[in-house]
Amino acid sequence: MLKLHALRTRLYENRFELLMGSLWCIFILNILFPDNIYRGYAQAIYLPIQLLAALVLFDNRPRILRFALFLGGLLIAARALDLIFVKSLKIEMLLLYLFFFGSIMFEVFRQIAHAKMFTFKMIYAAVCGLLLIGYCGYFLFLTIEFSQPGSFRGLGPGDQAINDLFYFSYVTILTIGYGDITPKTWIAKNATVLVGFTGYLYSIVVIALIVGRAHRIPRASASPIKKPGPLLGHPPVPGQAAPQPGQAVPHPVQAAQTIQPQAESPRHED
Asked: Quick check: 15 and 53 in contact, CB under 8 A?
């Protein structure tokens, strides 16, 4: 039990690194298996890794953890059925993907917003948030395209259209705008604006949070405040000892008031 608890603690401390690695696997495996990035073998490899990263991310929130575990189990079961039996995409599965990764995205946002100090983990979390926005946008565009075919202009034939929408989602949040793929229907145009605006607003807010947290870092190398040194140009007051090197010299007026003897009270003779 102690080893399991230590393992869970260590995984939670590195939760953003694990999540970022699982998201970068998407791009690496999509290059190695470029045929169909949605229904191919690449997603069957990195989907369990993403599920593990999500469970670690929700480790301190039991209710959300159970919900994420339920969605993840449905996704793995649906993916297994899709690889074996199903020959076409289903909107229900796309909505499962959207809810699953959307919950991860909002949890990353929440943890960034509640961070009190700036650390390198905030940078990892910020990268994860941006990657998740593009990934959720990809599933949103897929849902629109398969519910209303022809919603996007410039897509390739067959499975190439699926890959093109993945590319289009990240081009949109990065505000590159090559123009080779454009939304055609009204719902596709609104979805594109929503994804692009979310990515743009996220970049502004996260940069502001990181800069604000960075200014709160205690500066250990800052030198302590030194007391004012001796005032040059003022002669020593008579009766006052000469200052030692590095010793502050009081102001002449204050020194005179300090060494001035008090007047004796008059005595009354009987």
From this structure: yes
* Angle (nearest 5°) at CA 204 between 201 and 209: 120
State both tokens at 101: 């990764």
**Taking a C-beta distance cutoff of 8 angstroms, is the pair 53, 18 a contact?**
yes
* 8-state DSSP, 257: H
Beta-carbon count within 10 A of 163 CB: 19
Q: Which spans in 117-250 are helix H?
A: 120-147, 160-173, 186-214
Asked if residue 200 has pLDDT above 60, the reply is yes
Q: What is the pLDDT of residue 244?
A: 56
Query: What does the pLDDT average to over 67-86?
Result: 75
- The angle formed by the CA atoms of residues 58, 59 and 61, to the nearest 5 degrees, is 65
Report the alpha-carbon distance of residue 55 to residue 153 in Å, rounded: 38
Tokens for 53, please give them: 């990263």
Residue 145 pLDDT greater than 80, yes or no: yes
**Averaged pLDDT, 243-257:** 51
Residue closest to 133 by CA, chosen among 181, 197, 209, 70: 197
* Structure tokens that stand for 116 in this block: 């009190």
Instruction: Give the other-Cβ count within 10 Å of 198's Cβ.
Output: 17
150-154: which pairs have CB atoms within 8 A and are 24 or more residues apart? Answer: 150/184, 150/185, 151/183, 151/184, 151/185, 151/187, 151/188, 152/181, 152/182, 152/183, 152/184, 152/188, 153/181, 153/182, 153/183, 153/184, 154/180, 154/181, 154/182
pTM of the model: 0.73
Q: Which residues pair with 152 in a beta bridge?
A: 183
Q: Which residue has the higher pLDDT, 270 or 184?
A: 184
Q: Which of 27-31, 83-87, 125-129, 212-216 shows the highest mean pLDDT? A: 125-129
